[in-house]
Prior knowledge:
mainly alpha, about 0% strand, transmembrane, membrane, transmembrane helix
Amino acid sequence: MAATRRLRTVPGYGTAAGTGALAAFLLVAVCGSPMYVGWVQQHTDPTGAGGWLLRLLAWPAWRLHSDDPSQGVLAADLRAVLLVILAAALLYLLPAAQVARVGNSTSQFFSGWAAYALAGGFTALLAAPFGPGGSLLTAFQATSTGVTYGFFAGWIVGLASLGGRA
């Protein structure tokens, strides 16, 4: 007879993966919005650390309509859509076994952070061929930017994963 283990639950909180996925969605929805992207391009200095970080947060930019009729809205927004989907999938797949065995929240934080960094890299790699100049070199360069974005924004997803059930 297989022994079943009762998972630690916190009343009133969602799962660690669920709250992390919600944070990933909100990051993309807010920081990738046309309003935020326009503001950050006009009001920040790209040569300063703060301006660079605020511009990096706008990496999964999406838009409601496409200025170029040859590329539809889906092609323009593929990166944002893929980031949310891959982040949610990796948040559910990666930490489940690890977090269920470890009782501290540090594991939840680092699992959420790592899942978002991986999601950023995979998103860039998968979306780059559909953009302009879709070559292998472009895909590798975009992956570098995606992982950088995931590393610097992933701590937010990691924090959102704290306190949830495994």
